[in-house]
C-alpha cells in the first residue's frame, strides 16, 4: 500500500455534512459542466452507490473514475493508481439518500480532487519513490562520415533498446553532402558554438584527431574519438589535461576490446603462465599521410597485448618498407614488465594481404595457435562502445575504472612513441 497516497486521500475526505464538503462541491461546480457531479435521482429504483476504497490503490485504472469526475485519470503506476471501486448496498430511507448515499457522494468529490493532480506532481512523486530523475538528452555532432562516422550516425538515428540519452544534431564534413539519412550537415563553427551540441564524435583521419579534440574541448563539449586520439604521447597528455580542466569527458574508442576474438583470448589466457608469444596482423595498405605512423594506426594490437599480459617494455623494432608496392612490415620486440616474458608484434600491410589476425602463445600448460571465427560477426561493437561512453557522461563509471583505462591508453601511446623513434 502506498502510505503517502493513502494519507493524502483520507485527509482529503471531509465529513459528508461538513462545510468543507460543501465548499469542495462548489469548487468542482465552478470548474465547468464537464467537471460537475452527475445528478442523483430521488425517485424510482436507485443504482448501487460506487464507493472508493482510497487506502487500497491498485495497478489497474477504475473506469468509473472517468465518469464521476470528467477528467482523464493519472497514468497507471504501482504507487499512483486509482482507488478500488467497491459495490455496497444502498441503505433504506424515504428519499433513497441514506447515510451510505451521502458518503458515496463525498467519496466521489474526494476522488475527483485526486484526479486534478497535475502531471508535474505525478512526475515528482515517481522520481521521489524510485530515486531517479529523467535522463537529460545530450546533443551529438559527428565529425567525419567515413566508415566509422556512418556507423555512428546509424546508431544514433535508429538505436536498438535500451536507447542512450543521445540526440543527433548533425554532422560535419569537408565535403558538401547535404543530408545523409535525414541527418543534416552543419559547419564546424556552428557545431562548436551551438548550445544544442553537448558531444562531438571525432571520426575522421588520424592526423586530424588532435586538432578537432582540442577545439571541441575548449568549446566546452564532451568528446568521443576513434583511436588513436593523437599521434604522440605528449599530445595525448595535453588533451587529457584540457579535458580535466574543462570538466569534460574524453573517451578514446577501442572496439577491438569488445570483439569476440579478444573475449576468447581473455578467457584462454586467464590463470596461465606465459612463456612467449606472437601477435601477427595482416591487412591492406594505409596512407601514412592520413593515418600516421603504423604503430599509431595499429595501436589496437598493442591494446590487446597490454590488456592480456599487463604493462610491457619496449626492446627493439625493425621496419621493412617498399613504397612502390605499398608494402610495410613492422616487427616489434617487447617483454612483460612483471616476469620479462618475450612478446613479438608483427604488423604487415600490402595490397594482396587479407585482414587477418594470427596468434601463437606458448604457456606452461600448452600452446594457443589459432583464433575461432566470430560467431556473431562482432555486431554492434560501435554501439557497445557508445554505451560505455554514456556511462561516463552519466557518472556511472568508477574513478578506479576511469584511471585504469587512462593508464592503459597512455601506456600504449608511450610504446608507439618509442617504436617510432627507434624506426
Give an overview in words.
The strands form 4 sheets. This protein has a 6-stranded mixed sheet. The chain has 423 residues and is of the alpha/beta class. 39% of the residues lie in helices and 22% in strands. The longest helix is centred in the last third of the chain and has 24 residues, at 399-422.
Structure, briefly:
With 423 residues, the chain is α/β, with parallel strands linked by helices.
Oligomeric state: single chain
Which sequence of SSEs, written as H and E, runs from N to C? HHEHEHHEHEEEHEHEHEHEHHHEEEEEHH
* SS-derived structural category: alpha/beta
Amount of beta strand? 15-25%
Rg from alpha-carbon coordinates:
33 Å
Overall body shape: globular
Largest sheet: 6 strands, mixed
Residue-averaged pLDDT: 79
Return residue spans where pLDDT drops below 50 for at least 5 consecutive residues: 1-12, 27-40, 48-100, 104-120, 129-134
Q: Strands of the largest sheet, in order across it?
A: 11-12-13-10-14-15
Count of β-strands:
15
Distance between the termini: 72 Å
Number of helices: 15
Structural topology:
Layout: H1 3-11, H2 19-30, E1 50-57, H3 64-69, E2 83-87, H4 99-115, H5 119-130, E3 138-143, H6 147-157, E4 166-172, E5 179-180, E6 183-184, H7 188-193, E7 199-202, H8 206-218, E8 222-226, H9 233-246, E9 250-253, H10 260-269, E10 274-283, H11 288-291, H12 294-297, H13 299-309, E11 312-322, E12 327-336, E13 342-349, E14 356-363, E15 366-368, H14 381-393, H15 399-422
Parallel strand pairs: 3-4, 3-7, 7-8, 8-9, 10-13
Antiparallel strand pairs: 1-2, 5-6, 10-14, 11-12, 12-13, 14-15
Helix pairs in contact: 2-4, 8-9, 13-15
Amino acid at each position: 500500500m502506498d502510505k503517502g497516497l493513502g494519507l493524502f486521500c483520507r485527509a482529503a475526505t471531509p465529513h459528508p455534512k461538513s462545510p468543507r464538503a460543501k465548499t469542495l462541491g462548489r469548487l468542482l461546480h465552478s470548474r465547468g459542466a464537464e467537471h460537475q457531479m452527475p445528478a442523483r435521482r430521488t425517485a424510482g429504483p436507485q443504482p448501487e452507490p460506487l464507493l472508493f476504497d482510497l487506502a487500497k490503490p491498485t495497478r489497474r485504472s477504475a473506469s468509473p473514475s472517468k465518469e464521476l469526475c470528467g477528467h482523464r485519470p493519472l497514468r497507471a503506476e504501482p504507487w499512483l493508481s486509482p482507488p478500488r471501486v467497491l459495490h455496497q448496498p444502498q441503505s433504506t430511507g424515504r428519499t433513497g439518500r441514506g447515510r451510505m448515499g451521502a458518503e458515496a457522494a463525498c467519496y466521489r468529490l474526494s476522488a475527483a480532487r485526486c484526479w486534478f493532480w497535475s502531471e508535474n506532481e505525478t512526475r515528482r512523486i515517481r522520481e521521489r519513490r524510485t530515486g531517479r530523475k529523467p535522463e537529460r538528452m545530450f546533443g551529438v555532432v559527428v565529425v567525419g562520415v567515413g566508415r566509422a562516422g556512418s556507423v555512428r550516425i546509424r546508431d544514433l538515428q535508429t538505436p536498438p533498446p535500451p536507447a542512450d540519452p543521445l540526440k543527433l544534431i548533425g554532422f560535419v564534413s569537408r565535403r558538401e553532402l547535404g543530408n545523409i539519412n535525414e541527418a543534416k550537415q552543419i559547419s564546424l563553427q556552428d557545431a562548436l558554438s551551438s548550445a544544442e551540441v553537448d558531444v562531438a564524435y571525432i571520426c575522421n583521419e588520424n592526423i586530424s584527431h588532435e586538432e578537432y579534440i582540442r577545439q571541441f574541448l575548449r568549446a566546452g563539449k564532451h568528446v568521443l574519438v576513434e583511436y588513436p586520439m593523437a599521434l604522440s604521447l605528449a599530445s595525448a597528455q595535453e588533451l587529457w589535461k584540457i579535458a580535466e580542466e574543462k570538466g569534460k569527458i574524453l573517451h578514446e574508442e577501442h572496439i577491438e576490446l569488445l570483439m569476440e576474438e579478444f573475449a576468447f583470448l581473455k578467457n584462454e589466457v586467464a590463470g596461465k603462465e606465459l612463456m612467449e608469444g606472437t601477435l601477427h596482423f595482416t591487412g591492406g595498405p594505409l596512407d601514412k599521410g592520413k593515418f600516421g605512423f603504423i604503430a599509431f594506426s595499429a595501436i589496437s594490437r598493442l591494446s590487446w597485448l597490454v590488456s592480456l599480459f599487463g604493462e610491457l617494455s619496449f626492446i627493439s623494432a625493425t621496419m621493412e618498407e617498399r613504397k612502390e608496392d605499398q608494402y610495410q612490415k613492422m616487427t616489434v620486440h617487447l617483454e612483460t614488465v612483471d616476469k620479462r616474458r618475450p612478446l613479438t608484434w608483427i604488423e604487415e600491410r600490402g595490397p594482396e594481404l587479407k585482414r587477418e589476425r594470427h596468434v601463437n602463445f606458448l604457456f606452461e600448460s600448452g600452446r594457443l595457435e589459432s583464433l575461432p571465427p566470430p560467431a556473431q560477426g562482432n555486431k554492434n561493437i560501435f554501439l557497445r562502445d557508445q554505451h560505455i561512453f554514456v556511462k561516463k557522461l552519466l557518472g556511472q563509471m568508477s574513478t578506479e575504472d576511469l584511471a585504469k583505462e587512462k593508464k592503459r591508453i597512455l601506456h600504449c601511446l608511450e610504446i608507439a612513441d618509442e617504436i617510432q623513434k627507434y624506426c
